[in-house]
Amino acid sequence: MAAGILGIGVTGLNAAQAGIRTTEHNISNVNTAGFRRQEVDFSALRPSYAGNAGWIGNGVTMDSVRQQYSQFLDNEVLLDQTRLSSYEAYSGYASQVDGLLGKSDSSLMGPLNAFFDAANEVANDPSSGSARQVLLSAGNSLAGRINLQEQSLRQLREESNLAVTNLATRINSFAGKIATANDSITRIESGSGQPANDLRDQRDQLVSELNKLVNTTTIRDSNGGYNVFIGGGQALVLGNRAYSLTAITDPNNSDLKIPALDFGGSTQALDTSLITGGELGGVLAQRAEVLTPAMDGLNRIAVAIGAEVNRVNRGGLQLDALTAGGDFFSGVVDQTGTAITNNTWINVGFTGNSLANENYSVVYNAGTPDYTVTRLSDGASGNFAANAEVTLGGVAQGFKIDATVAPTNADSWQLNFKNYARGMSMQLTNGDQIAAASSTA
Predict the structure, then answer these.
(1) Are 62 and 126 in the same domain?
(2) Is residue 79 part of a domain?
């Protein structure tokens, strides 16, 4: 009887000790990142049958140590974290673009107004040498400001490319640690039959940190391991195996770096539109929505100004009233398209209509009309003869095309209006070359 009493008492002491140790563990780790409060689950030992007296208890036993948390709330926190990181990265780059294009000391508005004011002065007094010199100076300042903006935007693009590369390295580090944690947890839990709570906390903290870099989907497998997916379902971690994320050159735009997964020698580019969260998602989103459109818009501004001013200056006479005017600006004349399936080139001339903020593919047809032009943003297409203005959906796109040498059937080109802002400069060197006089009698 005494042994039974002592035995039951010991079970109670052991249970109390387990509870105290768990509480001490909770208190000690109150500042540990990712730690979840733990609680001991107890149950009564199987009672002994005492005949007519019924069942007599034999004490208490500890079943397990259980984590206290809400999976729903954890998921919401992860979602908020990945959104916050994305917004911060997006805002950081977007604010730099806004500062560059919007501030008075770096925007185009001042030089542009000064240029057209100077042009009006020449129009009002074509014989004025000083007015002509002011216009040359204003043109040089305008081209210089466009060059400077392009250089600054290009630097931001390089920074975003570097960010993609660095983020891939950081993501790989967390992916490898999660795979290692999966292996440890699976081995420990399969041997003990009990959850490895502290290791699970550490793994969940790794997932939390990973979500700050890229939005993930995590699925627990039957062995207790985590399978982690990114970019619309591409596996980053499967059990104890982590795949490597790398940065490759975008096959559709050689100026950009995009993330890709390396599956042991086979590299698969990720659809950047599906990477919607984390710092990586923010970098990619701002590049697609802010930085690239800003660069495209700047190039089109350079084309619109340069091509139209050149057209007007070519249509007049220089100060001597005998010599026809030439190009005012250089670097914004007919552009050469990028060949895709051939070694030929395609010339692009500007018509004076508003140049659309779009990119295009061009395919040569052996029959008539000569070219099929497709707008990449929406797939709108049409067939056009050489040197005919391209019009899609009833809207003039602002350019015409022709090949430099005779193409063959199905030759194709990619057409985008880039590098104009970088190359724009003054063609005229003397104010007398400004064609302010009419070429008609």
Answers:
(1) no
(2) yes
Residues 127 and 150 in one domain: yes
pLDDT tens-place string over residues 2-23: 447 778 888 888 888 888 888 8
Taking only the tens place, the pLDDT of each residue in 189-216 is: 888 888 888 899 899 999 999 999 999 9
Q: Are residues 259 and 122 in the same domain?
A: yes
Q: Are residues 100 and 20 in the same domain?
A: no
3-state SS string for the chain: CHHHHHHHHHHHHHHHHHHHHHHHHHHHCCCCCCCCCEEEEEEECCCEECHHHCEECCCEEEEEEEECCCHHHHHHHHHHHHHHHHHHHHHHHHHHHHHHHHCCCCCCHHHHHHHHHHHHHHHHCCCCHHHHHHHHHHHHHHHHHHHHHHHHHHHHHHHHHHHHHHHHHHHHHHHHHHHHHHHHHHHHHHHHCCCCHHHHHHHHHHHHHHHHHCCCEEEECCCCCEEEEECCCEEEEECCEECEEEEEEECCEEEEEEEEEECCCCEEECCHHHCCCHHHHHHHHHHHHHHHHHHHHHHHHHHHHHHHHHHHHHCEECCCCCCECCCCEECCCCEECEECCCCCCEEEEECCCCCCCCCEEEEECCCCCCEEEEECCCCCEEEECCCCEEEECCEEEEEEEEECCCCCCCCEEEECCCCHHHHCEECCCCHHHCCCEECCC
314, 345, 360 - which closes a domain: 314
- Domain boundaries, position 11: 2-68
- Say if 427 falls within a structural domain: no
Total domains, the chain: 3
* pTM, rounded to two decimals: 0.79
Residue 425 lies in a domain: no
Clarify whether residues 19 and 74 are in a common domain: no
